[in-house]
Amino acid sequence: MIGGIARASTTLLFKPSSPSSYLTKLHFLTLQKPSLSTSSSNYSRLQIRSMADSAFQKIQIQREGTTFDAYVVGKENAPGIVVLQEWWGVDFEVKNHAVKISQLEPGFKALIPDLYRGKVGLDVAEAQHLMEGLDWQGAVKDIEASVNWLKANGSEKVGVTGYCMGGALAIASAVLVPGVDAVVGFYGTPSPQLADPAQAKAPVQAHFGELDNFAGFSDVKAAKDLEEKLKASGVPSEVHIYPGSAHAFMNMSAEGIERRKGMGMPDLNEANVELAWSRFQSWMTRYLA
Length: 289
Known about the structure:
The protein is built from 9 helices and 8 strands. By secondary structure, it is an alpha/beta fold. Strands 1-2-4-3-5-6-7-8 form an 8-stranded mixed sheet, sandwiched between helices. α5 crosses α6.
């Protein structure tokens, strides 16, 4: 159920014609913000990435004549969860999320597919370029191959989660990927060209920030529209809106917080983050464990 939070409507500043165009507004809002690519922040990024990488097993997954890297962490033979990146790529933040997921009770095996094939955006312009170049239908096939890999390697049931761009893909997977047992999406909805949530076939839980202003993609209106479509699908669903939180509010690493501030999102609400993780854990345990 939605949190019942009243909010003035957000003007749609652009008409999305493709999945990636939903986030074009983000590019223009942030181009004038100071870059985080200083030598000290790059050193910090390398430290964080090194610590995160050590927790993962790097594997390769094949599909339709192509191969992509993926990163796995968690208990063997545990329920599996495919974890989908933000527009930055497979960076420290999505790896932090995957490690967190693997440590939640009763224990999960998390797998991050590298949708960008090794590329990572270090600033907004790079991330925008990478996302605009993404083959979204191919990304859905990567997700399906990741689900199949987990089921072939000890996970009886598999869910999908994702953040921002990955959140939109996670919800799309409930429509397009056979074998998905549950979905949790964070602040992202698929474009009509990619998937119609009214056709979802797996239970979906979704999380949005009340202050998120990315119209048509993750603002309150998009969240409410998603809720109505999920109701029409007939699958179990929940849509939660968090007061006082903007886009990407789950990013709680020190560098992630600074990156959000540099993009005009200074909000920080640990209570909302913990509540969202609690709801995530309950949902995935209910449908996967």
